[in-house]
């Protein structure tokens, strides 16, 4: 089976499918499947654009809406995961996965499916330690904090995937493939030959073991912003093993009527962009997707979005779901709001605690604990700091994965390229962000804000932690 793998798509579906057609003509024939590895940008309309964590001037409609409306159809089955540049309100409708357009399938927050006997699993988002142990509490309309935390990976999704068995054969190696964004003269697409089961059907199927894990872990769903841990064998939990049993998988097959085929039940849930008509400001709505409703009813699991809506009705909003507007950003991409997170459980000496915010512009900042005794940045040091290259920034522990997109910005998404400086005409002075001090010992810990350029100062001295 010929499988094409694409890097960050950024909504450029027309270009990707055109490149795929060229690869088919030059290669060994048709491609059976396309896998897209994040930043898919399933943008349906201008309201979806406002739910992308990028500065306003980099919010472009691109070409996905043509596939959503039915004007075009994906020429090959396409499966993707989410990244940190997504129309999060759209993907949030499908926490367990589903069709975002005909022949284009989203794996969900985490998911496993099968195609022609090949098992395909993935997890969406990026890792941030300060949100990892929270529940899925965000919902539209997002504010300047939740528009970013919505795509931060949560421990429950990793926990679910860890319940699935690894069926790799002994002696076979795991291979990793690094690909670029969909840009001219970049290596963003590669076609691989994958062994498959010739007798398996040529349509997308649910993975029965994965569905069994979803049912078993349904009671663990959390829609609060509090920090919490997954069950483990430490004497505090009555159950910590949620792996699938043969009996439980038989029950799932009965619920599927012994047909694991993923139904082709795509339906439009929002108005589609029409370039021939003037666009109006569309209010952001927290939607319930019929695909998710049908999936949850058949499998007997909880729709996270229904649970979120009930939680909102039962508890005062407390400003957490304030109207998004322009999300506190201007054309510089600067977020002037304080990033409200609870990191009290984190150690002050762990390099993971340095929070690399996903700002898309020159004004990127990094928040660090005030008890790390950071040297202050004098105005005279700013000029030299601004000329530091990106190669001096990413000194992170090997256990923390950072996507190439987060570390290697490009003009296409409003970011910088590796090796470039952050000097520009829009550069703001550091004195606009005065350092805050604690007024008393009972107030929450405040964070100093410094230029992201200076992260190398706070890298761990121990090379083993790099």
Describe this structure in words.
20% of the residues lie in helices and 12% in strands. It is an alpha/beta fold. The protein folds into 2 domains: 313 residues, no CATH class; 115 residues, no CATH class. The strands form 3 sheets. A 6-stranded mixed β-sheet has the order 4-5-3-2-1-8. A 3-stranded antiparallel β-sheet has the order 7-6-9. The longest helix has 14 residues. The C terminus is likely disordered.
Topology:
Blueprint: E1 2-6, H1 13-26, E2 33-37, H2 46-49, H3 64-69, E3 77-81, H4 88-92, E4 98-101, E5 104-106, E6 110-115, E7 118-123, H5 146-149, H6 155-163, E8 189-193, E9 204-206, H7 208-216, H8 246-255, H9 290-299, H10 304-314, E10 355-356, E11 365-369, H11 382-386, H12 404-407, E12 447-451
Helix pairs in contact: 7-8
Quick take:
The chain is α/β, with parallel strands linked by helices and 466 residues long.
User: Which percent range fits the helix content?
Assistant: 10-25%
- Uncertain stretches of 5 or more adjacent residues: 318-445, 450-454, 456-466
Q: How confident overall, as mean pLDDT?
A: 76
How many domain modules?
2
What is the rounded distance between the termini? 39 Å
Features:
466 residues, alpha/beta, six-stranded mixed sheet, three-stranded antiparallel sheet, 12 helices, 20% helix, globular
